[in-house]
Amino acid sequence: MDMLLEINDIQKTFSKGKVKANDGISLSVEKGEVFGLLGPNGAGKTTLVNQVIGLVKPDSGSITVDGINVITNPGYARQKCSFQSQSQAPTVGLTPLQAIQLVGKIRGGEKTVVKRRTHELINRLQMKEWENTIGLNSTGGIRRLVAFCMAVIVPGSIVILDEPTNDIDPLRRRLLWQEVQGVAEIGSAVLLVTHNVLEAERVVNRLAIIDQGKVKCVGTPAGLKTGRYNNMRMELILEPGRTIQTPDFLVDPIVLNRRILAWVSQERIPEAIEKANTYKNDGQIEQYSICPATLEDIYINMVGRFENDELSEEAATK
């Protein structure tokens, strides 16, 4: 494998060692791969990215980009990495067209190639009507798309995208994911930082789930669903104000507001469907679904909560 990014046992603390942002993180990303870095806010994702591009120095561990130590040579990282920050890019006073082309020129792109690719990105992401609008007056979603285009107009060996779909409408999110895959296909390693689990599953080749500065698991989406995830996933949506007695065919139920997520063994699926239909007919649940495991299930199991900490790991009301 042609590993472009290798992170080995990175440790980073803040507040004089009281807060561990990264606690022994080791990862690698190869050429042509979309690698997802998933985790809730505060998990240590952005801190790790800032160390990769040389903005923050780790307490210990090593980071190499294309075999070069970027802790001792941060300028090399900034040369080889394209980066879309989680915050909005500063495009005040520029149109999307101008901002994208300017970054392309700064990154050494040939003038005619940059111009052609800029128009291709604008058209494919359906931004044509805003291309000559001053950035400050554009919508948040459009500014986010412009920032993405600035990161990929002349993609580096490693392209780092930190929450690239924030504020973007569902249609353009799909178009953006197509562009992400296109960047990987031309040979860049893409490090995708996100907490949007469902979207990440559609685009990543491999992923790591991190929480509280630690790597919880690493693998392909399919590979991480083996073992207990060979069971079927059942979801019940309770009617407002209603409770149910947890049936014994639901394994490891987790409650999230009115949602009950649990596992059902293959042999008990007919029984589970019959019981769920009874609940629905009795007005206890609004709806139910049964399907194979998703990346969301792995995320819940590893992290144990969503962004707003609404998740309760207690069993459903008995």
What does this structure look like?
This protein is of the alpha/beta class and 318 residues long. It contains nine helices and 15 strands. The protein folds into two domains: 3-220, Rossmann fold; 225-312. The protein has a six-stranded mixed beta sheet, with helices on both faces. The radius of gyration is 22 Å and the shape is globular. Residues 306-318 have low confidence and may be disordered.
Summarize the helices and strands and which ones pair or pack:
Layout: E1 3-14, E2 19-30, E3 34-38, H1 45-52, E4 60-65, E5 68-69, H2 74-80, E6 81-84, H3 96-106, H4 111-124, H5 140-152, E7 158-162, H6 170-185, E8 189-194, H7 197-203, E9 206-211, E10 214-219, E11 232-238, E12 251-256, E13 259-264, H8 269-281, E14 285-291, H9 295-303, E15 311-312
Parallel strand pairs: 3-8, 3-9, 6-7, 7-8
Antiparallel strand pairs: 1-2, 1-4, 4-5, 9-10, 11-13, 11-14, 12-13, 12-15
Notable features of this structure?
318 residues; alpha/beta; 2 domains; 6-stranded mixed beta sheet; 5-stranded antiparallel beta sheet; 9 helices; 15 strands; globular; disordered C terminus
Short characterization:
The chain has 318 residues and is α/β, with parallel strands linked by helices. It has helices at residues 45-52, 74-80, 96-106, 111-124, 140-152, 170-185, 197-203, 269-281, 295-303, and strands spanning 3-14, 19-30, 34-38, 60-65, 68-69, 81-84, 158-162, 189-194, 206-211, 214-219, 232-238, 251-256, 259-264, 285-291, 311-312.
